[in-house]
Design brief:
About 35% of the residues lie in helices and about 25% in strands. The protein is α+β, with helices and mostly antiparallel strands. The chain folds into 3 domains: about 190 residues, Heat Shock Protein 90, CATH 3.30.565.10; about 120 residues, Ribosomal Protein S5, domain 2; about 220 residues, MutL, C-terminal domain, regulatory subdomain (Ribosomal Protein S8, Chain: A, domain 1), CATH 3.30.1370. A hairpin with a 6-residue loop joins β3 and β4. α9 packs parallel to α10 and α14 crosses α15. Bound molecules: adenosine-5'-diphosphate (ADP) and magnesium ion.
């Protein structure tokens, strides 16, 4: 056989590299903004059209490039930021891999205008699919303006892979916010389809946070600062009572680079301990400064993951700093979740929170009432039970219609989490939340398949304000939300009006439930091929399902057990977790 190995042409190699670095319009925006930062710009303007698919532009007032550099910047592994391997351990710039521009030029039509401060004329360069189409002197402001048109024009498969406009816009806003937060001393603007959505003037971190998330944040965050030999921490953490159902506002920067780290996230959450109501996430805006030789940011092409040399100490320091900040502002003793109307969740869900006299408890809250009413109209399930007496006792017999010979005895609730029962096969340990999730999921799925519209409760219209990113997500999944019964429409910007909700939705919790759906939607793997509706149905079920920590009376336990055993898929929650465990007699024997 003759030789078969050959070197890939640059254009192909660049396309392959682009697959890793440029996944969507937002990745290109991130890279261009970072380049502007590295070029020392103090004012960075971002313009996008058609959610970046057809047009993206980043204009900076940084140092610009010479004619030769302008051309070289599009070569792969062309960078001005490192010279030798050792430099990798002292990285202070955002970029260093020299891949971004080459990747972008491989998969889009790019125009660059750039001028050095010392030069009177600039350079204009056009490049598409890695081919330079023209390069000529031009009159332009100092700094650099890069325009990207028709991303993935030459890779239809990738172009088709892009999500809806709302979804791609949400990603752009997210990347924009991350860079803008990391550099509050610079000014940034973002213009989408001719509308300026952010205009952030230079200031301090707190001003930047309120500039992005609204003035309400002045009251919601406390500063934290720690100076140790290993690292320096600075930033703000959100007061626990403003914790969110969505994880969106968790920002960690290491040497001003936005980083995802579940490890450090855990350190912070742990410091909040039981100050947080279950299923809520604290907001934080934390900046870690650390000697670059003590970290490795080279492990991922998009550079959002990081390895620390001394993880354990870092965990401890961050946890302590967060605790100290919470303590210093004596957040602990004055918890009163009821004061904030925007954060309205029923107290009976707190479960593990220490009950303090000043916490106003909504004693009338019963997670079953609303559903109860809805169900009474549709089923006559009560008649299906064979009760041993009229008064609920400790021992009940439930006889699901579908399994006439399968009598289930219920003993009670354990740890405010499990329903203990038995049938002829053995002991049943039923997870109350997962079981309820399965029930809700199947019920709503059935409703959906029967008619186009779920049963809906009309509401006195409620106005709801979302963060920019969440607003985009709402727009993205609006048709699915409507299908399951959320009658939501856009009022303008990030404001929405809710006119109806699915039956079973607790009054006063509408915003909370929507936020929770968003959060759980975001956390579900985007890799699966699931239908969107199903994904939302799952989120919905897990949000309105009875949570742990809620005391169930006998009647409620019966209903859950009965309904669970009526389900098509009894054994698994909609997200694939076991709803119950059966301990057979043999299992029990082996325990003794
Ligand atoms: P990296 O940022 O990893 O070096 P890029 O492909 O993003 O790689 O950029 C290549 C080079 O082009 C940079 O090292 C820099 O010298 C130059 N460059 C890119 N964007 C700009 C800009 N906005 N202003 C000045 N120089 C830039
Ligand atoms: Mg770069």
């Amino acid at each position: 056989m003759s030789d078969i190995i050959k070197l890939l042409p640059d254009s192909v190699a660049n396309q392959i590299a682009a697959g890793e670095v440029i996944q969507r319009p937002a990745s290109a925006i991130k890279e261009l903004m970072e380049n502007a930062i590295d070029a020392g710009a103090v004012r960075i303007q971002v313009v996008v059209k058609d959610s970046g698919k057809s047009f993206m532009q980043v204009i900076d007032d940084g140092h610009g490039m010479s004619e030769t550099d302008a051309r070289l910047s599009f070569e792969r592994h062309a960078t001005s930021k490192i010279n030798q391997a050792n430099d990798l351990f002292a990285i202070r710039t955002m970029g260093f891999r020299g891949e971004a521009l080459a990747s972008i030029a491989a998969v889009a039509m790019v125009e660059m205008k750039t001028r050095l401060h010392s030069n009177d004329v600039g350079t204009e360069l056009e490049i598409a699919g890695s081919k330079v189409e023209s390069q000529q002197p031009t009159a332009c402001p100092t700094g650099t303006a890069i325009t990207i048109k028709n991303l993935f024009y030459n890779i239809p498969a990738r172009r088709n892979f892009l999500k809806s406009n709302a979804s791609e816009t949400r990603h752009i806003v997210e990347e924009f916010q991350r860079v803008a937060l990391a550099f509050p001393e610079k000014s940034f603007s973002l213009t989408q389809d001719g509308v300026q959505v952010f205009n952030l003037t230079a200031g301090n971190l707190k001003q930047r946070i309120t500039g992005i998330f609204g003035n309400g944040y002045n009251e919601r965050i406390v500063p934290t600062q720690e100076d140790t030999t290993i690292l320096k921490i600075e930033g703000y953490i959100g007061k626990p009572e403003f914790a969110k159902k969505t994880r969106g506002e968790q920002f960690l920067f290491v040497n001003r680079r936005f980083i995802k780290s579940s490890y450090i996230n855990h350190a912070i959450s742990d410091a909040f301990a039981d100050l947080l109501p279950p299923n809520t996430f604290p907001s934080y805006f934390l900046f870690i400064e650390i000697d670059p030789s003590k970290i490795d940011i080279n492990i991922h092409p998009t550079k959002t993951e990081i390895k620390f040399e001394d993880e354990k100490s870092i965990y401890a320091i961050i946890r302590a700093a967060t605790k100290r900040a919470l303590g210093k502002f004596s957040i602990t003793p004055s918890l009163d979740f009821d004061q904030e109307t925007a954060f309205n969740i029923p107290v009976s869900m707190y479960g593990t929170l220490p009950r303090q006299p000043e916490v106003k408890v909504d004693k009338s809250y019963n997670p079953f009432t609303a559903e109860n009413n809805a169900k009474k109209n549709t089923h006559g399930w009560e008649n299906l039970y064979i009760k041993s007496s009229d008064q609920p006792s400790d021992l009940f017999e439930v006889e699901p219609a579908s399994r006439p010979n399968q009598k289930i005895k219920i003993f009670g609730q354990f740890a405010l989490k499990y329903i203990l029962a038995c049938n002829s096969e053995g002991m049943l340990l039923i997870d109350q939340k997962r079981a309820h999730e399965r029930i809700l999921y199947e019920r709503h799925a059935k409703l959906l398949s029967q008619s186009a519209q779920a049963i809906q409760q009309d509401l006195f219209p409620i106005k709801i304000e979302f963060s920019t990113a969440d607003a985009h997500l709402i727009k993205e999944i609006e048709p699915e939300l409507k299908k399951i019964g959320f009658d939501i429409s856009e009022l303008g910007g990030t404001t929405f009006v809710l006119n109806g909700v699915p039956s079973g939705t607790e009054r006063g919790r509408e915003k909370y439930i929507l936020e929770a759906i968003l959060e759980s939607y975001k956390n579900q793997s985007t890799l699966s091929n699931d239908q969107q509706t199903e994904k939302i149905l799952r989120s919905f079920a897990s949000t309105i399902a009875i949570s742990y920590g809620v005391t169930l009376n006998m009647e409620e336990m019966e209903r859950i057990v009965h309904d669970l055993f009526e389900c098509d898929v009894k054994e698994w929650s909609p997200t694939g977790k076991k709803t119950f465990k059966l301990l057979t007699e043999q299992d029990l024997h082996s325990l003794f």
